Amino acid sequence: MITQLTQEEVDILIDEARYGELDSLKEIFQQIDPKVLLSIHNDITLTTPFHMAAANGHTKVLDYLLSLIPKEEVKTVINKQNESGSTALHWSALNGHLEVVKLLCEKYDADPFIKNSAGHDAIYEAEMNNKEDVETYFLEKYSVEPENNHDDDTVEFNEGTEIQNATKDAVDSLSKDAEKVSIN
């Protein structure tokens, strides 16, 4: 079994994942020790085969590659960030590959809340790129929808952000002004 790859061999393996070449990858891993997957990435961008398969919607390729990784290592590998801090889940969400997103989250426990260098998590990437089915999946799975416990038009504020606090202050101020007008 081959345990070390040249950069050229790494690039070939990454390209095979990128283009969804499952049969080719199966042949490669008959000769190469799957443990190499723990450390291979593009030298410049730090992109892994997992990033490429996820970004291009190759669910079967991604599942196959992850099945080669020892169980205790999978979460580390699947949450590995590239040079811009993005994970495979960021890329699959950004490109709207719902089946890949489901595979990563449900079978491999990928973390959708990891933020990349721009401060975006995978949920934000789906939302900002109009990938509504992926966004809906995230919102339902992780219960990150805003809470509205009222049957009327009452607005509920939670502590935590400047915008929420500023909005509450503005509403309070308008309410006080409305009371003054009605009194006078």
UniProtKB/TrEMBL annotation:
Cross-referenced InterPro entries: Ankyrin_rpt, Ankyrin_rpt-contain_sf
Signal peptide: none
Biased composition (Basic and acidic residues): 169-184
Gene3D superfamilies referenced in this protein's UniProt entry, alphabetically: Ankyrin repeat-containing domain (1.25.40.20)
Domain of life: Eukaryota
PROSITE patterns per record: ANK_REP_REGION (PS50297), ANK_REPEAT (PS50088)
Region (Disordered) location: 147-184
Keywords linked to the UniProt accession: ANK repeat
Positions of ANK repeats: 84-104
Xref: SUPFAM superfamilies: Ankyrin repeat
A Pfam family reported for this protein in Swiss-Prot or TrEMBL: Ank_2
Name by which UniProt lists this protein: Uncharacterized protein
Species this protein is from: Komagataella phaffii (strain GS115 / ATCC 20864)
